Amino acid sequence: MEKRKEHELKIQENGKTSKSPKLCGTNYPVSISFIVVNEFCERFSYYGMKAVLTLYFINYLHWDQNLSTAVYHAFSSLCYFTPVLGALIADSWLGKFKTIVYLSVVYVLGHIVKSVGAIPSVGDSTIHIVLSMVGLILIAFGTGGIKPCVAAFGGDQFDEEHTNERRKFFSIFYMSINGGSVLSTLITPILRGDVQCFGGDCYALAFGVPAILMVIALVVFISGSGMYKKSPPEGNILLDVCKCMGLAIKNRWKSSKYDPKKKHWLDWAEEKYPRRLIHEIKMVLRVLVLYIPLPMFWALFDQQGSRWTLQATRMNMAFGSTFVLKPDQMQMLNALLILVFVPIFDMVVYPLIGLCRINLTPLKKMAVGMIFAALAFGSATLVEVNVTKTVVEPAPQGQCLLQVYNLAVSDVKLNIPGSNLFSQPIKSYEDPPAYQHIQLGGHNKTINMAVTQNESPYQCVQTFTEQKAYTLVLHSNGSGIVCQLATDNIHKSEKMEAYLRFINTRSEAVNITVGAVDFYVPEDYGISPHNSVERKEYTNDKCTSGSQDFLITLGLLDFGASYTVILKGDPGEIILQKMEDVKANNVHIAWQIPQYVLITAGEVMFSITGLEFSYSQAPANMKSVLQAGWLLTVAFGNVIVLIVAEGAGLDQWMEFLLFAGLLVAVCIIFSIMAYFYTYVDPDELDKLFPDKTVNDDDEDNLKKNQKYHMDQTDNKYWKQQKLRISPRWSMNRNTYSVNTMTSWLNWVR
């Protein structure tokens, strides 16, 4: 009978006690299996949706890159503000179980609305935007609201004596988070790009699958309802802290010069709140002051899903001739690298640093993490500089771009009045080296150009409009040189495709099918429109001219390039000549790996260490306040990106360099603040104030002991790491405490 009791869990609900068997005769309650599966599905739904979000804004809603980046980070910021609200609801009103259920319903509704907004046949573009924004807001409240509850609720299922099992549960819980993140960032881009629906990329499916996973998460979680241990709401210390600070500010404002002086502004709340609580708040505020520079790190870190993804769209994604990576799949690299780096840093890097007798304190580690993140953006800057070499920059106001195709049988000379451009003869069927800038001096201008062939002069009169790109096609007819102007597409495809058009010099019209795209090219130097085609090697494509069918080979149409194919030859043959108007993406995606390595190393040193330090410096009942502060640093970091993306107006490489420079400057400020910070041991509060109150002498004694604790930090705590939390239960994964606000294991990225 005693043996059976060891494998049963008492569940308290509505005053009744029931029993549930534990997993396979262990001390693990069956209920945690529902929680782990729920977390896996929820993380899959969140990261899967977020992985394709930036490209959805650009390719489906047709927003520009800056607006897409701003909205992406506004959504991310909201996801970090709402956990504070969710924790307050759980701890002060509904309890964790009901909070998870109710907000998961909101979460599911958000996914459904978001998926419906991605169906082209549902309304116009305004409806799509409205549905998308409503869906994202609901998702932000859902994911943020349940974020601080799930891990803590899982920990509640264990008896107090089963601490080892609880610790292992969090490792499993953490693996479910990583599993959901890695799989979703791998799968949803495939659903987006490889599955075609409604005539294009299937964003409805890419959002719909995460919605289904969230429905499964909710159903699984509710299925275990009868097995859960459900703790009633116990109140939230954050509310008490805010009320205490509010009262202190109020009383300080109302005080007069005749009132007794206070050592600290918080002491003005002594009339209502215990002095021990006030002193604990003072300790927390000292740590929160150190949080002030931290948002800049997150401003860089969270651009992996926005600016870095957009950078990947202008790079070569092919690995060999068979495997092509999606640009939004590169985000998966961070989750994979973190699994490798955490044990390496814990078991190799830090011990080696210790053997070298280097005093690497927690705050120093955080500063080094900032430097790593800045170096990551330095690497991104170098990549961006090389990426932009394949980009044709649009002409500024008052100018246009021009290139010349000479399709005549001999060389020609082109003279543009007031310009020394095209000073050299243009060879027959020569691929133009680059676009030239033509000065217009206004919105548009008609230019009378002189063309010379074999010493014979001809006039070419064309009208140009500012900020457009043109190809001037010169060819012969019976009476001499004829010119015609074609508008070019110089923008690289955001869908990693190639642009293609044809010029037909033959006397018969031509119909060509390239992949799934049909082209009609009129006779006698007719020009087809630009169409985007899938990146691949094209051989044996069907071509019809008159009553004859031909098979043509275009070769590789590469990422981001724009091609013009000249069709020539006698009636019984077709000869192709391929021109590259916009160069293909020639910087390989592997060059992004160094920046991901550096940003992940920075994450390990900054985030994990930062939370360990924060936890060591705050009283046990104040750790929830620190979590709220930590989440807000991430939220404000995303706000910084939002402001820069919409307001700076810089070239992308300059923006990367700006962020790197700002983080270095912030790192210097943080290092100065850290130099003057004095470490304390919150456990000393219980020894100094056993009666839970604080008097002036006790406060003075504690201040005298702070220097001692700082000197003893490495010997007593940081080398032994008695309070060390499990790696990667930080930043985006929160560490457990029974109070919801101190649940640090759940990812909050």
From TrEMBL:
The gene is slc15a2. It is a multi-pass membrane protein. This is Solute carrier family 15 member 2. GO terms for cellular component: membrane. GO terms for molecular function: symporter activity. It comes from Salvelinus namaycush. PANTHER family: OLIGOPEPTIDE TRANSPORTER-RELATED. One of its GO terms (biological process) is oligopeptide transport. Keywords: Membrane, Peptide transport, Protein transport, Symport, Transmembrane, Transmembrane helix, Transport. The keyword Transport applies. The chain crosses the membrane at residues 44-63, 69-88, 100-120, 126-150, 171-191, 203-222, 283-301, 332-353, 365-383, 625-644, 656-677. Belongs to the major facilitator superfamily. Proton-dependent oligopeptide transporter (POT/PTR) (TC 2.A.17) family. The keyword Secreted does not apply.
